[in-house]
Amino acid sequence: MTESFRDFEHAGWADPTVCASYDDLLSSLTTQSIGPLLDAAGIKAGSVVLDVATGAGYAAGAVLARGAQVTGADFSAEQVRLAKQRFPAAAFMEADAGNLPFAGATFDAVVANYGVLHFPDPERFFREAFRVLKSGGRLAFAVWDAPQEAKLFGAVLDAVNAHGSMDVGLPGGPNMFLFADAATSEKAMTSAGFQDVAVTRVLQTWRPSSSEQVLLTLKTGTVRMRGTLQRQHAEALDAIDDAILTALEPFRKGLGYEVPMPAVLTAATRP
Fold first, then answer.
1. pTM confidence score
2. How big is the chain by its Cα radius of gyration, in Å?
3. At 62, phi and psi to the nearest 5?
4. pLDDT per residue over 58-96, tens digit each?
5. Which of 26, 79, 135, 184 counts the highest number of beta carbons within 10 A?
6. Which residues on neighbouring strands pair with residue 69, listed in sequence order?
7. Roughly how many angstroms between the first and final C-alpha of the chain, as a whole number?
8. For the segment 98-115, what is each residue's pLDDT rounded down to a tens digit?
9. Distance set, CA 141 to CA 14, 50, 185, 223 (Å)
10. Strand, helix or coil at 134?
11. H or E element in which residue 21 lies
């Protein structure tokens, strides 16, 4: 039986090593978009909020800090365990973004911080978010900007295309950068029934401390990138590593780096 994209993603995010590495090596970057995300969702004291693909729970924790109520949902039991450990005052549960276990008109806001790019059917999530939102409620989600702008991803894709292959047998899924395009996001929101769609860019910087941390992050703290790199021919691996670091050399700061990694933030209202 052919592995589905959902099963591939789930297996990756069920791995405690991947979850811990992502948390250790990338949370300083992924948390940079949380403030703008919650602002775009209109979250304030007393709001009732659903954080989908909550991961280690950072967005849910920020919701609590605003005096709002929050439920964090993730399809990974390991991520839910980490989130409960980190933010015990929040409610967390295992749930699938395409089949949210909540009644209609339950939440004032639904947020997803880098979750949408992992969903096998993002449009189904948008419809589910619409369903569980109250009238006037807001959906807001953040994704990575296009690889030309999110320089780490651009470096990886260029290196693999130059020295290896992107065709390594990973299960097919939505383009990771699909919703970096404002027109695509606007169309998806409108198709799901949302109004007042706004798409903005959030400038962010990733600051790994060394070239070793750059490569470790890609090979242990991601799922699609990790899978792509793991499946390259052995003789291509060193050339790919070298090309990634060469591409990031303009962002070198001392022993470390300051790598531009902007996000694209989409927000919309349920009528």
1. 0.96
2. 18
3. -70, -35
4. 999 999 999 999 999 999 999 999 999 999 999 999 999
5. 79
6. 48
7. 42
8. 999 999 999 999 999 999
9. 22, 12, 10, 20
10. strand
11. helix 16-30
User: CA-CA distances (angstroms) from residue 117 to 1, 98, 173?
Assistant: 24, 13, 9
Q: Model confidence over 179-235: pLDDT tens digits?
A: 999 999 999 999 999 999 999 999 999 999 999 999 999 999 999 999 999 999 999
**Residue 1 clears pLDDT 60, i.e. is over it:** no
pLDDT value of residue 3: 80
CA distance 187 to 183: 6
pLDDT higher than 90, residue 2 = no
| Distance from C-alpha of 224 to C-alpha of 219, rounded to nearest angstrom | 10
Within 13 Å and on the Cβ side, how many CA atoms surround 216?
14
Look-up: residue for tokens 């927000």? 267
Q: Which CATH number fits the domain 5-269, given the four candidates 2.60.200.30, 3.20.20.370, 3.40.50.150, 3.20.20.210?
A: 3.40.50.150
The token pair that represents 117 in the structure block: 């790019």
Q: Which residues contact 95 (CB under 8 A, 6 or more apart)?
A: 52, 73, 74, 75, 101
